[in-house]
Amino acid sequence: MVKKLLHTRMRVNDLERTVKFYENALGLTVARRSISPRGAQIVFLATPNSDEEIEICQLPNSPSVQVQPDLMHLAFEVDDLKSFVAGMEQRGYKLSDEMVKTSSGSTIAFLDAPEGYEVELIQKAK
Length: 126
Prior knowledge:
The structure is a single chain. Helices cover about 15% and strands about 35% of the residues. It has a single domain, classed as 2,3-Dihydroxybiphenyl 1,2-Dioxygenase, domain 1 (Roll), CATH 3.10.180. It is an alpha/beta fold. The mean pLDDT is about 95. The strands form 2 sheets. A 4-stranded mixed sheet has the order 1-4-3-2, covered by helices on one side. The protein has a 4-stranded mixed sheet with strand order 5-8-7-6, with no helix packed on it. It has 2 helices and 8 strands. It has helices at about 15-25, 80-90; strands spanning about 5-10, 30-35, 40-45, 55-60, 75, 100, 105-110, 120-125.
């Protein structure tokens, strides 16, 4: 039986650009950096109030990453979506679509991350 989810890995072409995005747009922090036995540069990002981490990996001498649309996304909960988006926009990051209210009463919005990955922001219904 699985005990718990530890991390999700995303391979990227530009490690530093991706790390900067997650730090500046979403406020994630670098937990640690390393180089794998295969020579991959790895950065683990910590998310507030979560034990799980996001592993960002740049593998040398490998084919370029080309993420297909709607292949996967990361979803983050925020307390106040409008306020969060306003702060994000002040830092130069814009939503890829308008905020939408779901049938459950939550409000969601999407943001394009580097490499073609997508980020979902969710304000849960109160």
